[in-house]
Amino acid sequence: MLIAFLCVVLSAVAQDKRLTSTARKNGPWVEQVPSIRGEPGYSWEGVYKNDRKEGVWKKYTVNGDLLAEETFKNGVLDGMCKYFYPNGKISATGMMLAIDIEGQKDTVIVIDPVTNEETFTEVVRKGNSVRHGEWRVYDEDGNMMRETYDRGELTNSVMGNQRRATQAPLPHEQQSGARKKRND
């Protein structure tokens, strides 16, 4: 009985060591996400560093089938990602690029509509990622389509040896017949 009690206490102490003195998550974690609003539940497995996901995280169905391998940096998708069909075949691979890191702060001017008084307000950003570079998307038969992204914007799509138009030209582009270069 004493041995069982010690095992329970030691496992609780070991789990608490994953939290820093400021109650931040650190080290390996497994998280269960229950099903909600018709979406199936899943589990996450990966490492936290200072309360943010870091490195490769794997996502599994409730039956243990691999759904995704995603790379995180500072809690935001940033790096190679792979997604899988329920039968284990790969459905997509490509790179994600973090364009906002969770917790970054901006200061904006807010104007009171009644008094026209300007005040500076601090806004905390949420983490945000976009597709970047070449993505390979597979159907369940193994046919591949290549998509190229530039910071989230689809620039090229090729299925087999056939290039497909990615976007219809905008009205100002149709007049001259050529796309104008954007200055970002």
UniProtKB/TrEMBL annotation:
Polar residues composition-biased segments: 154-165
Region Disordered, annotated ranges: 154-184
InterPro entries per the UniProt record, alphabetical: MORN_2
One Pfam family linked to the record: MORN_2
Membrane spanning stretches: none
Domain of life per record: Bacteria
Name by which UniProt lists this protein: MORN repeat protein
Source organism of the structure: Chitinophaga cymbidii
